């Protein structure tokens, strides 16, 4: 994910630094053990190998974001396999759609929602839009496309979507619009620090921070994106549609 983002190699950020990031993200948030998780797609299944989600969970990862769909006709061939295995292992699931601005936003929203709701249930986080390419659309057209996609997904799922993006893209392709500042933000920023840099688009805080694309964790073959939850949306168990925290 995050095309065009400068990659800085570090396999992990110490829990103390992540706890500091949480305190910085949400005023009044006490430093605590961070809620962490990878995001995965078909790339994390080299040669068709499975992800060992029990190992992921035992390594301290509470959630994972999984690519579900792209454009109008692509479904991640490992999506259902991963989601079912995550549920058994007690890993909360986020499912994202990779936006294709050349195609109808309403049709893409319906396609995504149909795929994701087929296995919706406890442990599922709100829908996610991965917005990191403009496909040549000018900002005004891309802003309109994004509104239409998000409105349709929220209508179909009943949950407010999360927006994934990175600062340079938002400031250029989206003209740094603040029209989406009310949506939860998943920001990609590989700055090697203990918190993301200044947020784009009028957001005052981030919900998830993707802090590296070169993480290594038990259960996943090769490099993987790693993320942390800020607490901006409240208790993670409630936000992930769980009656109680996983692993309790």
Provide structural commentary.
The protein has 248 residues and is α/β, with parallel strands linked by helices. The protein has one domain: Glycosidases (TIM Barrel, Alpha-Beta Barrel), CATH 3.20.20. 28% of the residues lie in helices and 19% in strands. The chain contains seven helices and nine strands. It has helices at 15-25, 53-58, 79-89, 105-117, 139-157, 167-172, 236-239, and strands at 35-40, 63-70, 74-75, 92-98, 128-130, 162-165, 185-188, 208-215, 224-229. The protein has an eight-stranded mixed barrel with strand order 1-2-4-5-6-7-8-9. Helix 5 (139-157) links the parallel strand 5 and strand 6 (162-165). Helix 4 packs parallel to helix 5 (139-157). The longest helix is centred in the middle third of the chain and has 19 residues, at 139-157. The two termini are 32 Å apart. The model is unreliable at 3-14 and 244-248 (pLDDT under 50).
Mean pLDDT: 90
| Shape annotation | globular
Low-confidence stretches: 3-14, 244-248
How large is the radius of gyration?
Answer: 17 Å
Largest sheet: 8 strands, mixed, barrel
CATH superfamily: Glycosidases
CATH architecture: Alpha-Beta Barrel
Number of helical runs? 7
The level 1 CATH classification is Alpha Beta
Count of separate structural domains? 1
Number of β-strand runs: 9
Structural class label? alpha/beta
Produce a short descriptive summary.
The chain has 248 residues and is α/β, with parallel strands linked by helices.
């Amino acid at each position: 994910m995050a095309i065009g983002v400068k990659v800085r190699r570090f396999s992990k950020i110490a829990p103390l630094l992540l706890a500091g990031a949480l305190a910085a993200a949400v005023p009044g948030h006490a430093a605590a053990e961070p809620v962490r998780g990878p995001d995965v797609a078909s790339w994390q299944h080299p040669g068709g190998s499975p992800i060992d989600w029990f190992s992921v969970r035992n390594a301290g990862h509470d959630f994972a974001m999984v690519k579900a769909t792209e454009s109008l006709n692509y479904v991640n061939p490992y999506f259902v396999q991963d989601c079912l295995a995550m549920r058994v292992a007690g890993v909360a699931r986020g499912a994202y759609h990779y936006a294709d601005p050349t195609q109808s936003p309403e049709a893409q929203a319906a396609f995504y929602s149909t795929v994701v709701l087929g296995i919706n249930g406890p442990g599922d986080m709100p829908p996610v839009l991965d917005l990191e390419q403009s496909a040549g659309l000018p900002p005004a057209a891309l802003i309109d496309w994004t509104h239409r996609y998000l409105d349709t997904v929220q209508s179909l799922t009943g949950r407010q979507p999360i927006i994934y993006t990175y600062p340079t893209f938002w400031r250029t392709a989206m003209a740094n619009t603040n029209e989406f500042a009310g949506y939860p933000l998943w920001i990609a920023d590989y700055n090697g620090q203990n918190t993301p840099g200044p947020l784009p688009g009028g957001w005052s805080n981030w919900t998830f921070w993707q802090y590296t694309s070169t993480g290594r964790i038990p259960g996943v073959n090769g490099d993987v994106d790693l993320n942390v939850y800020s607490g901006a949306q409240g208790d993670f168990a409630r936000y992930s549609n769980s009656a109680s925290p996983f692993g309790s």
